[in-house]
Amino acid sequence: MSKIILGIESSCDDTSAAVIRDSELLSNIMASQEVHRLYGGVIPELASRAHQLNILPCVSQAIDQAGIRQEDIDAIAFTRGPGLLGSLLVGTSFAKGLSIALGKPLVEVNHLQGHILSHFVQVPGAHKPVPQFPFLALLVSGGHSQIVRVDDYLDFTVLGSTIDDAVGEAFDKCAKVLGLGYPGGPIIDSLASQGDPERFKFAKPHIAGLDYSFSGVKTSLLYFLRDNMAIDPAFIDNNKADICASFQKTLIDILMDKLFKAVKQTGIRTVAIGGGVSANSGLRDRIAAEGLKRGWTTFIPERRFTTDNAAMIAIVGQFKYERGLLCPIDAAPISRALDYK
Ligand code: KG4
Ligand code: ZN
Question: Which of 171, 187, 285, 302 to mutate for ligand 1's pocket (most ligand atoms within 8 Å of CB)?
Fold first, then answer.
């Protein structure tokens, strides 16, 4: 009997709804919120208001585009956390309302698990290979930077995490101090492709084990700009692409160094990347190249599955639903990082 899952994602500033049938994507509707660009970052109150406007059209379009009827849905999966509480509340409340109205079970999803399992979403006709267990996931987003060992669909062990900022924050902060706009990651990515990654050097952290730290490299950039601007006030304008390329390379080197260590420690040579920063061209090229050189099997998601989307929520929902892991109707959203379960 095939299973149809509706996924709902509203953890930050993207509202999304998706329908999958037996891992196959039938629709994935996204509404990004442009309003935050004006402020150079996500404004939580504006984000939840925009979710309220977007959620109904997103869900009904996802159902229409999937070519199904509401009553065909087997379960409703929603992002319970982590994220902005007001944003999560909109998706959670909507999912609960729909669950009651349709008499369909609810499944709660950890957003980070969604990023990692996005590799299992099948696009109709594509028959793409999926990671074999166990594999290592490099999860890089605006809020998290982790190396996670994945032994099964729902069996995760965090091997390393950031002790301060996430790598996406470092990208966004760099763009902000360079006056490039928000979100910074994609802008740095595109400027970096025109610059020299070896031109400037930034301090790298020395953290034991598999944990990350990105606050030092951010500070190193701030001092570097301050010192150079004192000599040449047009330093940023004259060197923008090289600064972006060098800063991006430093971030990628930091990510890769720990990944090499994790592969060595675990002996696992299947490596998958996920999360918003996995859209970065430099990181994608580097993972592919290192994989080839080191004999890893690498998984790089399609760009539409890197940033927040409901397809990844639906796929986790499917795996949990198949195992009978349903969620009570009184489950409240949780903004802090959740245990993987
Ligand atoms: O996964 P995501 O959409 O939201 C969170 O769960 O945090 O990740 C958003 C982050 C932002 O920091 C954004 O700047 C970064 O992903 N990002 C990128 C790129 N596209 C998005 N960073 C570097 N290069 C990109 N192309
Ligand atoms: Zn995310």
Answer: 171
pLDDT digits (tens, 9 = 90+) for 92-103: 999 999 999 999
Which of 139, 141, 189, 278 for mutating ligand 1's site (highest number of atoms within 8 Å of CB)? Answer: 141
Specify the ligand 1 atom closest to the Cα of 175: 14
- Note the pTM of the prediction, 2 decimals: 0.95
Tokens in use for 318? 């499917």
- State the closest ligand 1 atom to the C-alpha of 166, by its place in the atom list counted from 1: 12
The whole-number pLDDT of residue 1 equals: 78
Percent of the chain scoring above 70 in pLDDT:
100
Cβ(59) to ligand 1 under 6 A?
no
When pLDDT is cut at 50, 70 and 90, the band that residue 13 belongs to is confident
Measured by CA distance, the residue closest to atom 8 of ligand 1 is 276
271 lines ligand 1 (CB under 6 A): no
79 lines ligand 1 (CB under 6 A): no
Lowest mean pLDDT among 10-14, 212-216, 262-266, 283-287: 10-14
